[in-house]
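User: Please fill in residues for this 202-position structure.
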């Protein structure tokens, strides 16, 4: 007496191909024959995958209205530089610290390496700068602006004929890369205040 040949259980891939109409005629026949036999596990698998695929096909979000999409994109664009009002001028920032002229403890010198650190007072706020030589003729200027809503400020650096700008993030952090060394003019412009740092030699 011959024992019935037992076929392997169905795979998730074969069930998906069957349910989504990608299986060939021979594969469909084998799958249906297997499901007609005593295999409750594979029948449960087909029911479960069928439920998931139907849910995925019917669970569609409506398209986003064009006006809402434009508003969302606009909200991530940097704010324009604040326009100068009549009579408003630049306020001079005050240098509080420069690591070139200040004597640093040995532990601090090891921590900052060759980077130059500066700190300025901008009225009641402050600006910290770190100037580091990345390669010959190329500097990176990192900074932290301590001010209410620092993301509304713009930091501009002009050196020679080149101009660079950065918008601090919500914590006031920013970085400007590929800055050439030399005399630099640095300004910080916010919604109501505009500060000019003393001329800085990078």
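Assistant: Residues filled in for all 202 positions:
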């Amino acid at each position: 007496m011959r024992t019935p040949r037992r076929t392997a259980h169905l795979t998730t891939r074969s069930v998906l191909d069957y349910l989504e109409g990608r299986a060939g005629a021979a594969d469909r026949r084998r799958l249906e024959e297997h499901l007609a036999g005593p295999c409750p596990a594979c029948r449960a698998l087909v029911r479960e995958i069928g439920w998931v695929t139907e849910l995925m096909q019917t669970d569609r979000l409506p398209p986003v209205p064009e006006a809402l999409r434009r508003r969302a994109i606009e909200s991530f664009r940097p704010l324009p530089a604040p326009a100068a009002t009549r009579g408003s001028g630049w306020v001079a920032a005050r240098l509080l610290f420069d690591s070139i002229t200040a004597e640093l403890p040995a532990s601090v010198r090891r921590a900052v390496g060759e980077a130059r650190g500066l700190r300025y007072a901008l009225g009641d706020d402050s600006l910290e700068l770190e100037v580091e030589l990345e390669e010959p003729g190329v500097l990176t200027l990192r900074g932290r602006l301590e001010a209410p809503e620092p993301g509304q400020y713009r930091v501009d650096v002009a050196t020679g004929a080149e101009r660079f700008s950065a918008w601090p993030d919500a914590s006031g952090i920013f970085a400007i890369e590929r800055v050439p060394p030399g005399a630099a003019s640095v300004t910080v412009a916010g919604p109501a205040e505009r500060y000019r740092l003393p001329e800085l030699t990078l």
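For context: Residues 82-87, 108-112 have pLDDT under 50 and may be disordered.
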